[in-house]
Specification:
mainly alpha; 68% helix
């Protein structure tokens, strides 16, 4: 539930940028968590959108992330962190807040 609220929050916050209420540069310089949320969900976005037929799910979040001039680098940082946490969880060295994919 908390993760669902987090995703909804960041998509709503990003909509303020896509609608012109907040400059993208200001938003992206003042936040980093939205990059982490996007990195975590990016591998699943197409599947979620297709399965739910909610084709614009997290569209605002995705758009704002890509407005950053170094978005690929930022997303990669968080993707590596998530992968590391999953690895530690698989080794029993970290609580499994990032579920380990079935082998």
């Amino acid at each position: 539930m908390a993760e669902s609220s987090q995703m909804s929050y960041w998509d709503m916050a990003a909509s303020l940028v896509t609608q012109g209420a907040i400059p993208a540069r200001m938003f992206n310089e003042g936040n980093t968590e939205h990059f982490a949320v996007y990195a975590k969900l990016r591998p699943f976005l197409d599947e979620i959108r297709n399965t739910t037929r909610y084709t614009d799910y997290l569209q605002h979040l995705e758009e704002v992330v890509h407005l950053h001039p170094h978005s690929a680098d930022r997303v990669a940082i968080f993707a590596r962190y998530i992968d590391r946490q999953r690895g530690l969880a698989a080794e029993g060295k970290q609580r499994a807040s990032y579920p380990v994919a079935d082998a």
